[in-house]
Design brief:
Low-confidence stretches: 1-23, 31-42, 45-60, 109-117, 314-338, 386-394, 537-556
Distance between the termini: 124 Å
Mean pLDDT: 75
Structural class: mainly alpha
Strand content: under 5%
Number of helices: 26
Oligomer: single chain
Largest sheet: 3 strands, mixed
Strand order of the largest sheet: 4-3-5
Shape: globular
Number of strands: 5
Radius of gyration: 50 Å
């Protein structure tokens, strides 16, 4: 340091007039690190000031001296180290990034990840497409099998190429995978059954002497199977029995086709079927839309069907149908088969007249099995010989409907006599204590026989008249109320079985008969329901599993099955009749609880039909 306290500066130059002054190194001190850390900053300031004129150099020396004093102050905290220039930092970052890129390995899995996912998605789509094609193929095969079954099961002269004069071709509406069926039919049958074919074949009727069959093509068929089944109905004389094996959806489809071709007999039979069987709630809208279109042409039967959905403006009066005369019954007897049938009738009467309970339990399933085998063999024999001119006789026979109903009436008479004797004994206190138990056992035996005969009638699809007979037993129902529940409850098994048959579509009784059945026997069944459960009452039902492994013919009473049958039977009535029955049930159920059958499901359906759904609702 120069005398006077001024520091010594050394001028640095490169041969020019301008230059810069550098601060000589300071002597070692306690804060030498602080001063040395700011040495570069001072040089930058000095370099900037060195580019000025020479007149400003004394001011620079004073400022530099002041700055040096500030840096030498030991009370100030140390400043951070000098930073690099911006260009150097950028260059260094670029070099580091390039070096990192060169050191990174090639990412081959990332380049192939997208194609792998794409191949997996394509394989999944191909698998789904193959499954869909397989399902469509199986549907087509199943449809073809059903169509072949209809064509291969002859009925009279249906699909008989030797006698046919019309070749009818049905083409499906589906463009892809559609079905085309050709069937051999007859002009006289089509014209007599359908007004559509009568107009279409009017020109054909004039051509009497024509050897080649006349070809008729019907395209755009919604369902070829249903159309073919409707044509096959033209060759049947018992529409009701044929429709009995179908369900509501298929009968609706048949009704739609029959309406399109104006096949009046099939229309009436389909409407009678819909009126007699229970429906699902999902089917109500479709039934209403289709039947409403037929109400003007068929007001009686169509009105009965709509009566279950539409609330009438006036309450309907319950009219009882006339009793069925024996002359109106369809006869299945043949003179040449009289003796074999007498054998079957003898077997049936031996069963219902048996006095040994164990022997009767063993004979019933035996005779039932033999009769069922005979019925199946007889149907197969009729199908194989239909349309053929043969005089060969067959040894396959079946018991007639009249014989079964005669046995039912005999059992009903014996049951009524037993009720009368038991009622008289209840009015005579001096009667023996053992007599009522014997009469009760006779009542149980007669009820069981009636149920067994009912099963035979249901298997043959001819149990409608039994519902009619049982619903008119008002005198027996009146005596029923006078007896204790322990002695009378077996009778309610008949009502329960008939309601199960109606609820499952096995019995197609008229609407008035169904209403009379419930009006006569529903209240006695409700009164006996607790005893039917308490004593383990048994109910015969061929479509369910029998209790025991020996085929005894008895089924332990299933509470839900009986309740479901009652609900379905009630829902087949008109809305006004449903309201009357269900409101009475609601009051009784609120008092008795589990001692009364639970008809809540029928109550909910009636409520929605009346107040919620609005289907065909009319103002009161």
């Amino acid at each position: 340091m120069a005398p006077g306290g001024m520091p010594n500066y050394t001028k640095l130059g490169n041969g020019g007039n301008t230059g810069s002054y550098a601060i000589p190194p300071s002597p070692p001190a306690d804060h030498s690190k602080v001063r040395s850390s700011h040495h570069t900053l001072f040089e930058m300031l000095s370099s900037d000031q060195g580019s000025s004129s020479s007149l400003e150099q004394p001011q620079l020396s004073t400022a530099a001296q002041h700055f040096q004093q500030v840096l030498g102050n030991p009370l100030l905290p140390p400043l951070p180290p000098p930073s690099m220039s911006l260009i150097s930092v950028v260059d260094q970052q670029q070099q580091q990034q390039q070096q990192m890129i060169r050191q990174q390995p090639p990412q081959q899995p990332q380049n192939h990840s997208f194609p792998i996912r794409s191949n997996a998605g394509a394989q999944q789509q191909a698998l789904m497409l193959a499954q869909q094609q397989q399902q469509e193929s199986s549907k087509q095969e199943s449809l073809q099998e059903r169509v072949n079954a209809i064509l291969s099961c002859p009925l009279n002269t249906f699909n008989d190429a030797s006698t046919s004069d019309v070749k009818l071709t049905l083409i499906s509406r589906d463009v892809v995978g559609g079905l085309t069926v050709t069937v051999h039919v007859h002009t006289r049958v089509l014209v007599a059954s359908s007004r559509y074919f009568a107009a279409k074949l009017a020109y054909r009727q004039q051509q009497v002497h024509t050897a080649a069959p006349y070809s008729v093509e019907i395209s755009d068929c919604e369902d070829v199977e249903i159309y073919l089944l409707t044509i096959r109905l033209m060759y049947s004389s018992d529409f009701k029995r044929m429709l009995l094996h179908e369900n509501v959806q298929r009968v609706l489809a048949i009704l739609k086709v029959a309406s399109a071709i104006v096949f009046e007999a099939a229309i009436v039979a389909s409407l009678e079927y819909l009126e007699a069987v229970p429906w699902c709630e999902d089917e109500e809208e479709k039934i209403f839309c289709l039947v409403s279109q037929l109400q003007n042409d068929y007001p009686s039967v169509a009105g009965s069907v709509l009566g279950r959905l539409v609330r009438p403006a006036r309450p309907s009066v319950l009219a009882l149908p006339p009793p069925i005369c024996p002359s109106q019954r369809s006869s299945d007897n043949d003179f040449s088969l009289l003796q074999p049938e007498e054998v079957l009738v003898k077997l049936v009467r031996c069963v219902i007249k048996a006095t040994d309970e164990k022997a009767r339990r063993e004979m019933k399933p035996l005779v039932s099995r033999l009769l069922r085998e005979n019925t199946a063999a007889l149907a197969s024999n009729k199908s194989s010989t239909a349309g053929l001119n043969t005089t060969a006789t067959t040894t396959v026979v079946d018991v007639s409907k009249e014989s079964l109903y005669d046995a039912c009436k005999e059992c009903l008479q014996e049951l009524s006599d037993a009720f009368s004797r038991l009622t008289e004994q209840q009015q005579q206190p001096a009667s023996s204590a053992q007599a009522p138990s014997l009469v009760s056992a006779a009542i149980a035996r007669h009820v069981d026989n009636i149920q067994w005969l009912a099963e035979l009638l249901i298997d043959r699809g001819v149990a409608e008249e039994l519902v009619h007979i049982w619903s008119r037993e008002s005198q027996l129902a009146a005596m029923h109320r006078l007896l204790p529940a322990m002695q009378r409850h077996e009778v309610s098994r008949i009502t329960a079985r008939l309601c199960i048959g109606i609820g499952r579509g096995q019995i197609m009784a008229p609407q008035q008969v169904r209403a009379l059945l419930l009006a006569t026997w529903l209240e006695p069944l409700m009164d006996d329901f607790s005893w039917m459960q308490r004593l383990g009452s048994k109910i015969t039902c061929s479509s369910l599993c029998y209790a025991g492994g020996n085929g005894g013919g008895f089924l332990v009473l299933d509470k839900k099955t009986v309740e479901e049958g009652l609900c379905q039977t009630i829902l087949t009535l008109s809305l006004e009749e449903q309201r009357s029955i269900l409101m009475s049930w609601f009051e009784k159920f609120s008092r008795d609880g589990d001692n009364c059958p639970n008809l809540q499901r029928a109550f909910e359906v009636w409520w929605r039909r009346t107040f919620a759904s609005g289907i065909g609702r009319q103002p009161q």
